[in-house]
């Protein structure tokens, strides 16, 4: 495996198609700009699909599950066994993202990268086990170099599979007790922020739990303060699923496949991806503003304007799934509305 595959530049979106799509928006039977962000969204999709008649029909959702050693510090309101239990829930259709995927007609791809409470072989779950969990990053680096590369490649492999299935859009999701702590620590390191600015409630911590979480993140930052490179920061503070998302986003962008980013944890993975490969940014669209405290700051760092703000903080790719109909409607309006000439309507 080429250990630097993630550095390969991504192609730019098709500027010629973008110009054609913008011109079409000006010819449709509506006042210019009257559909607001839906117009921008249609043009964004057109430039990335390379056609002025874009569409979002085949949606691929990969949910990466993994456990975190830092859960031993009591940073979650839920026990670590929940990660493995939720893997089974995804596969049997009972989780929120499973319901949303069915409603969208999307392909739901569940990937188990390593859970302490291993559900074993589950139909519909791809086993890509790296270890039962990362190391506790308060004591050591979360991942070895080999584990990091393996996790990133696991994400890239799922993006490649989505491309093989002719997906129009890639969505990544995550599940892992303790992963908001990992994502927060990584975001603090990448943004040079303090835990006070970014630590949120995660799965629903009370004030005492929040204080403990801030302390844990600060301890991790202090321990790994010598890690200056974004890849090394990802290795020391990230999780298997966060690394997989990072790899998936870069690989999708390298393949010219548009990406819809979900909430806080996935946006931190997107930040890591862009720090590793700046050209990937052009292929990322951001679905929603999570209710998790640090999300707004990470979005700002990426100069991202999310499509929705519904006070969601579930993860699993649920916020991105909810935003898919907006993309579909934006593309349908762009394709199917009549022009002034076609409709015989007088221009302004």
From TrEMBL:
Please list the reactions this protein catalyses: 5,6-dimethylbenzimidazole + nicotinate beta-D-ribonucleotide = alpha-ribazole 5'-phosphate + nicotinate + H(+)
Q: In which pathway does it act?
A: Nucleoside biosynthesis; alpha-ribazole biosynthesis; alpha-ribazole from 5,6-dimethylbenzimidazole: step 1/2
Enzyme nomenclature, EC number: 2.4.2.21
Pfam families, per database record: DBI_PRT (PF02277)
Gene3D superfamilies, alphabetized: 1.10.1610.10, 3.40.50.10210
Q: Which residues form the active site?
A: 316
List, in alphabetical order, the Gene Ontology terms for molecular function in this entry: glycosyltransferase activity
What broad class of enzyme is this? transferase
- Which key words tag this protein in UniProt? Cobalamin biosynthesis, Glycosyltransferase, Transferase
Report whether Transferase shows up as a keyword of the record. yes
Q: Tell me the function of this protein.
A: Catalyzes the synthesis of alpha-ribazole-5'-phosphate from nicotinate mononucleotide (NAMN) and 5,6-dimethylbenzimidazole (DMB).
Q: Which family does it belong to?
A: Belongs to the CobT family.
Q: Which NCBIfam families match?
A: cobT_DBIPRT, PRK00105.1
Full protein name: Nicotinate-nucleotide--dimethylbenzimidazole phosphoribosyltransferase
């Amino acid at each position: 495996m080429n250990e630097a595959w993630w550095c390969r530049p991504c192609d730019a979106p098709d500027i010629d198609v973008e110009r054609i799509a913008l011109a079409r928006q000006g010819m449709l039977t509506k006042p210019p700009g009257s559909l607001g962000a839906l117009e921008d969204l249609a043009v964004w999709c057109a430039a990335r699909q390379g056609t002025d008649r874009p569409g979002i029909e085949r949606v691929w959702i990969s949910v990466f599950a993994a456990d975190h050693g830092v859960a031993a510090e009591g940073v979650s309101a839920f026990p670590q066994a929940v990660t493995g239990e939720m893997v089974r829930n995804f596969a049997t259709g009972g989780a929120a993202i499973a319901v949303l995927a069915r409603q969208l007609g999307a392909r739901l791809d569940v990937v188990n990268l390593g859970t302490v409470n291993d559900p074993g072989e589950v139909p519909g779950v791809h086993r890509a086990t790296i270890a039962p969990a990362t190391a506790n990053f308060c004591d050591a680096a979360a991942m070895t170099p080999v584990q990091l590369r393996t996790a990133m490649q696991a994400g890239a492999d799922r993006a490649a599979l989505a491309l093989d299935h002719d997906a129009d859009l890639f969505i990544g999701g995550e599940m892992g007790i303790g992963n908001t702590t990992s994502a927060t620590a990584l975001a603090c390191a990448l943004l040079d922020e303090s835990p006070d600015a970014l630590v949120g409630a995660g799965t629903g911590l009370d004030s005492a739990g929040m204080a403990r979480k801030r302390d844990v993140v600060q301890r991790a930052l202090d321990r790994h303060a010598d890690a200056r490179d974004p890849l090394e920061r990802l290795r020391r503070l990230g999780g298997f699923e966060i690394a997989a998302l990072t790899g998936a986003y870069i690989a999708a962008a390298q393949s010219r496949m548009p990406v819809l980013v979900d909430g806080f944890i996935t946006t931190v993975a997107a930040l890591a991806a862009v720090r590793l490969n700046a050209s990937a940014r052009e292929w990322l669209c951001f679905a929603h503003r999570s209710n998790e405290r640090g999300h707004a700051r990470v979005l700002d760092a990426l100069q991202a304007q999310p499509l929705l703000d519904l006070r969601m903080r579930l993860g699993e790719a649920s916020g991105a799934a909810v935003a898919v109909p907006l993309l579909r409607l934006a593309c349908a309006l762009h394709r199917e509305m009549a022009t002034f000439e076609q409709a015989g309507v007088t221009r302004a």
